[in-house]
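REVIEWER CHECKLIST
Item 1: Sequence provided? yes
Item 2: Single chain? yes
Item 3: Sequence as submitted:
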Amino acid sequence: MADFDWKKLVAGIAPVLGTALGGPLVGAAVAELGAALLGNRDATEGDLAAALFTGRLGPEQIVAIKQAANALAIRMRELDIDVLKINQASKDAYLRDVQDARARQVHTGDYMPQVIFFLAFIAYVGQFLLFIYGAMPADEFTRALVTRAFGTIDGVLLTAIAYFVGSSRGSKVSGDAVRKIAEQSGR
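Item 4: Structure as written out by the authors:
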């Protein structure tokens, strides 16, 4: 059951619920699903995962999930809440945070991001060479620690690269903005 992604299953049947389950409205989505599938608005995510774990959804469960999606959509309209706007606002806040960090570095001339990048790069190359030319420790626990440290340094290096180069998400947002400007100027 550890590999079972019940939220992905629900999102495939009812995208509105999938969106809500991945954002700040997860409580409302779980309550609607709990009411529809289990007859219990106080059901937990674990209860829902267990109910959907069988992997064999019958027509009743599919209908119940779609009914939960409709109930959530109605409830959100009653409260004048737009799930997509909430999720977009969350993504925009993240993007502004990244932009603020880069702007801060440009404004202050801070060299620490470059230092962190080069230290991570040196540590990455050092551990990579250790894996190729060195002997791994015989002790299984120590070997696991060395491997985990390599993964951590790999993550730090990728994060540092993303800081300077940007991410695919940032590139998409920039591309969308450019397309929007081009469409507006073409009118």
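Item 5: Key structural point noted by reviewer: The chain has a mean pLDDT of 77.
Item 6: Recommendation: ____
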